[in-house]
Each structure stands twice: as structure tokens, then as C-alpha cells.
Amino acid sequence: MKIENEDALDDLIICHQCHTLHEEVPIQDGSKALCRECGTVLYRYDSKLIDHGLALSLTALIFFALANLFPIVKIELLGHEQFITIPKTFMTLFEQGFYIVGLLCAFLIFLFPLMVFTLYTAVFLLLKLRRGRQLTKELLVLLSYALKWNMSDIFLISILVALVKLIGYAQIDMGVAFWALLVYVAIDIYLTKQIHLSEIWMLRKRIYEEQER
Amino acid sequence: MKELKEDAVVRCPVCEAVNLKKGQKMQCRRCDAWIETDPKVSLSKSWAYLITAMIAYIPANLYPMLITKQFGTTQESTIIGGVLQLWEHGSYPIAAIIFFASIMIPILKFLILIYLLISVKYPIGKDRKINKHKLYYMTELAGPWSMIDVFVVAILAALIHLSHIEIIAGTAATAFALSVFFTLLAAHAFDESLIKENR
Question: Of chain B's two ends, which shows fewer C-beta atoms within 10 Å, N or C?
Fold first, then answer.
């Protein structure tokens, strides 16, 4: 492989699973390029990436707000009604003195999930307005860290496991927030699978280069 | 025009941009993140996190994970105790999930990371057949699922606190959460480009 200058490195991509070096080739709208060694998706091309991304991340934010404001589950135990919300889950840990676990949970199931989609929305919005070249860079760096630590999907499964443990002891009612969380997790999985961060970086480069001309 | 070889480039761990290798510590040309190309640093960081995680895993198994206070009697259950209890109650799927998430995945992850860390430094002839990239990718994917047990304890503790029935998290919850946290850090610190086989 040959390159002329540092800028030409942007036409290269290293597979994130097997570290094979590839040269990027233009592909059709809506299709994807696979690694020749291990078959992992290297990149996709979507001409409406900003609009798709913005729509999905805004929807996710709305559902995340719903998931936090309303009870996830209500149970009736010995005539007493109890419910939990996402903030209440880690606040109880704080009240019981489990500060480390409480802090970890607060970050993993509340702060990072919130950050991921706030950052996605901000980045896509800035790219759509063609503004904030430096700011998008910093937001994207932050996003790459937040994405690794978003555990809302695992929290969703944990709710189900916890409820199965309670079957037979208490009457269980699913709250609105549970379904909102389900939608949020579905969008989260879809978005992180469909849109690689490197595609947003490439889009950012194209947009601001056009602007400079 | 410049000839480019595969080991002359490095992928930025933050933004995935392809960079030319320039010395041991360099900044990514796209996102300015620091890229460490010295294998020693990544290996010793990974070892340090992994050893911390393994130490934290010991109290996680010895101390109670869940304390149930019911009409004056207190019942404590450890991770393994909880799994056995669920199995006896007949909730086999849940027992299996907890067993996989809290016992199988952490231990497998320790073993796989130890194997990877040793094998990138001292390659043995036979392990060329094992797809280490896939192995690493699987641990990366399965790792966070160990948190299930901690979340379940948090949910139960938040949900059940009546005057005569109460569930409280145990000491093991802290130890276990820290153990999972440090295993994740160890996996993130490991530099995959050190794996040279299966190209």
C-alpha cells in the first residue's frame, strides 16, 4: 500500500476485530463494506446519516426521560405497594451506605446512557448546522468513552431476573418506564450497531472541508 | 509516494483513525488522544488491573451478596449460595443466568486475559491455531454482563424495604462490582494489535 501524505491515511481503515489494514472504497448508498479476513462490518455508507442519527437519538432521549420519570415496576407485598424508578435504584444503595456500588450504578445505568444520546444529538445537530469544528471533535472523543460504559441493556435484563426471583412472593405490575426503557435499549442497540463512530468522523471531515472551500 | 507497511501504522483507540507510528508516545492526528505504542505500558497496565480484579473477586465470593431480613430472622446468601437456592426452588433458567454472569464469565475472563497477556509476550508454537482476536472480542462482549448480579441486588434492595421484610445489599456487592469494573479496565487496556497471528 502506498500513500502520498498524512491526509491520505484517512482513506485507510483498520478492522476493529482482526486489525487488518484496508483501503476504503466508495460504496453504494445503504450498503456496507466487510473485512476481507474476518467478515466484520468495516463501514457503511448512508447519505442521510445526519438525519437518521438525529431522529433516532432524539427519540432515544425522549424515551430515556420517560424511563426515568415513571416507575419501572410496582409490586404489592403484604398489602404494601412498592415501586422503583431508575434513580431510586442507585439512591437506595447510597442510603444503605454502599457508596462505591451506588456510584458505579449511577454512572452505568444513568449518567452514561444519558450522556451517550445527549452527545449523539449534539454532534449530529452541530454537523447539520455545519458549526463547531473543534467542539464536535471534543464531543466525539467523549462519546467514544461513554459508549463503552453504557449498560442500560444489561440493566433491562437485570430487572427481568429480579422480577422472576419475586414471582410467588408478590404481585408484580410493569410500569410505563419499563416499556420506555425497552424502546430506549432497542434504539441504543440499533444505533451503536448501525453507526460506527469512524463514519461520523469521516462525515465531519467532509463537512468542514466543504465549508473551507 | 511512500511505501506503507501494516506494522508502520497504528489505530487510534479513541477515534479509530489510522496513524503513522512515531515514537513510543504520540498524539492522534484526528482527535489528539494520546496513543501508546510501547507494548510494555499496555501489558503492565492490563496486568495491574487484572490482578486487582482477581483480588476483589475473592471477598466477592466469601461475603454475603444479599441479606434478607424477614420477621426478625436474618438470612445471608453468597453468590454461589444464591445460585444453589434458586436451583433448589426450581427456577433453573434464572439460576443458570446468574451462574453464567457471576461465576462463569468472570473466571473465564480472568483465564482468557491471563492467556492473552502471556501469549503475546511468549508465543508458543501451538497457539497459532487459536483465533485470539475472536477470543478477545468475545471477552469484550461478554464482560459487562457480569454486572447483572449487582444490578439485581440493587433492584431488590430498592424494591423491598418494608418494616418486617427487607432486602439489603451485602459486602460482596461492593467487592464484586469492583472486580467487574477492574476486569473491564484490564480488557480495555489490553492492546489488541499485539496479537500478531490470524492475519
Answer: N
